[in-house]
Protein 1
Amino acid sequence: MTEGDKLRLKQQGLEFMDITEHPTLGALNAQRPQRFVNPDRSISAQNSDAVRALLAGEITTDHMRADIAKLSSFWTRSYRSNWGLLSSNWVFDHVSSIIAANPSDKTRTTVTKFPHKFVQNSVVLRLDATDDTTPDEEKELVIVGAHQDSLNYRLPFFRAPGSDDDGSGTVTVFQILRSLVEQEFVPPKGIAVEFHWYAAEEGGLLGSQDVAAFYEAAGTKVKGMLQMDMTAFVKSGTEPKIAFFQDQVDKNLTTFATKLVEAYSPLPWNMTTCGPRCGSDHMSWTKAGYPAIFATEGFFEGKLAIPFSRLAYGGTDASLSSSQTSLNTPSTPSRTMSRRTTRGTTAAHTTSTTCWSS
């Protein structure tokens, strides 16, 4: 299949996985014992009220509006363009600056550029508890992701701000990260939390397949993956909602996520689908044999992304609510998550910048 063939599918509103590089994704995990257990914890009303109050006071849309304006200022974020490389470099620098602005000696942070055969990099940020002696290979990961690229389906190197698809998901994940480090979140023992910003979702989930295949080959344990894609669009005359896809997702993990919405979010939730048009990076993790879910905006049926859309048709309030819900990361009760009153000037995250070899 050529790039032109893929563009024609996109023009028809069809989503797909380009499995050229990873035709056997999931084969290794299929041979391994099942070890990924979905969460089964109750959510206390007292805890819900406390978290709601904390989130309401800590999170605003100011950062999100500035971030999405910057992302959409790139001519395009196409994974095959120099603009796509520049935008991915900005994502890397931006998340690094969020960490640098919130120093803590309680967490160890690694910010990574994950290279691909195309010019755009994926970006991976990992949080570990500094005092957790669990070997990295034994830890379970909780992953929150979005795709950073955009694409003009008709003219692939022309203007494609991609404010909603998926600038909105990208800044939602920025805000989740920012809120956690501002509140001095520390992952519980035996668990690491990762934030992923994937390259080349629009090319057939190319970036996330590379990452998922790397993790599968390494035997990495992934407790759950949440994909945030198109989280800001609210159709005129409709009620803002957080929607969960029913296609190619882990049903039990989705059910747990709906309980989180009920407990922590001011918005209601609904289930949605788009049949053969459904597609985002959660599919790479599902295919690799890991529990994955997909959160988006309202009712998705009948709505196609407009690659050149700007903020006129979207709103960051919906993304804000997605951030509030996602802060209660499935199966990761924080050992430390409190309102920050002072910020140390000497303590700092241990931050390293690395690249995986292709």
Note: Residues 163-182 form the longest helix (20 residues).
Protein 2
Amino acid sequence: MPFVHAIHPLKLHHTSDTLETVLEVWCSLRWQSKAIAGRDCSTKANGVVAMTIMASYVIVAMLIWLLMLVLTVTVLVLVIRALLRMNREPSLSMRPEAGGNPPFSGDGPISVARHRALVALLAGAVVLVAGLVLNDVFSRNMALIAALTPGLAASAVMAVIALPFPDVPTRQGGGVRVASLQSREPWTYAKRYVLMQPLLTAGLLIAYLGFTIATASPDDYGLMRNIALTGPNGESQGSAGPYPGAYYAVPLIVVTCVLVVLACLALWRIAHAPSSPDPRYGEEDKAWRVLLTRFTVFLSAGSMLTYAVGVLVVAGTATVRVGINYGSLSPAYADDVYPTLGNAQIVMGGVVAVVACIYLIMACVAVVRLWTGTNRGSRR
């Protein structure tokens, strides 16, 4: 055993020689333990510097994650509050008053909304399938195309909805065109705290992508899609990927901005589309605008939350891997808190995944109700 051979030649008769030899043995054992852990042995002074640097890094990292946690909890609270109040809002109720009009007709304004929704969903499906096929063809892109495809598909849906609606005014006797002059805005059909959710989600997603850009490292090809464990001397002691660095994050930010802009245009178009002044279609006109507004908000926000889930899980997995050196180190070793931060991201990704599913389900419910209408036998 190396320890036995090191202790055996000690001369206990000379105190100075004994202390010197013990220190040499201690340094030797410390070097061996660090070598087993995959790290270089350093002097006491360098060790103090390394501990100071690492402590500063841990403090900054934990503060960042605390901020992200607070923001995420705030968003979840706002989401729950908005969803609970949205369906209780009398002005946005789609149930008619007593003696109101019958269910949706087949030739009224609702038919135009149904056609627009079908075309939008078809465009989104085409973009989704095309993106997945291209990702298989260009397999060297490290799933970049697949990462962008959901956002591009949602953007295609928003773009179709944002197209001008057909002019549907009626003509009175004498060929005079008649149209409703009622002022309409997006917040006429959804509360402002509902409409702001896509913007809030996009802001949080972009902020988090900025964090991953700042913490990314280049891979063997020089592309920023890895995360590295760097020692106090600046040398890389291990890396893992894929990680949402600039290679993934910058395109995702661009797609997110495009999606938000198209969602805002779609909401504006829904509110300002021409309506029929025929009083028989008053409820239908309000109903399709409310439903398409909800569909637009929930689909755009749900798509960005889905992006956030992917980024959190991928970043968390890579962070855990680099912290434990692909499983060669026990997670309990972790003097770099990488596994802790990585697992926190993965758990947060699971929480956001639940919220994303809720949003996407509500988007589906909103578009289905264009055909099923509402239960007109009861009121709220």
Note: The chain is about 65% helix and 5% strand.
Protein 3
Amino acid sequence: MSTHQPVTLASLSAAMDGGFIAIADVADAMAEVRATEDYRLIGGVAVLLHVQRLGLDLPLRATGDADFGVPPHLLQEAALVPAIEACGYENAMPKISGGASRSRPPTA
């Protein structure tokens, strides 16, 4: 069982704010379908978290999205996509190879 610690990250733009909000939204959706251990945050925000965790004196890496690694079996879970859509996201494209799909953030 992992321990969770709050992290405070600086944001460089409204796009970066949106990425942080998407992380919280997807975490909530995963909790709703009881899949909190079945996905990984990857990409730019993961790099930011590692830099902060290691206390490295590096410039902030700007990113405007939230990337997740999710196994195919979870993407086929009937409740997951509706849980993400309930946060205001919409499916941006039809299913692609492996059953994956991409979601577009809510518009203002």
Note: The first strand starts at residue 40 and ends at 42.
